[in-house]
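Need tokens for this chain, all 88 residues.
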Amino acid sequence: MKTKTKKLPKWFDGEHYSHGETVTNPFSGESYELNGTELSMYDFIIGAQIWIGNRWMEPETYAIQKEMRKGLDWFRSANAKAYMVLLD
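Here are the structure tokens for all 88 residues:
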């Protein structure tokens, strides 16, 4: 059964991938096949996590933290199973 791909939100200004790939959770070793749209948001979320690092309490990270949270919410609604495997 083919499911409809959820469009990226208007606020998203990251890279838009036309093709997906298999992504592996580095902690659990579990993998999930993402489409291009999901992979675009996944890469944005992971990039934000890396950029923020251990600076969660620093004001200059607050804006990207807010965007990352919106990205996580989008990803959870777009593909809850992949979210549970890769980001939860």
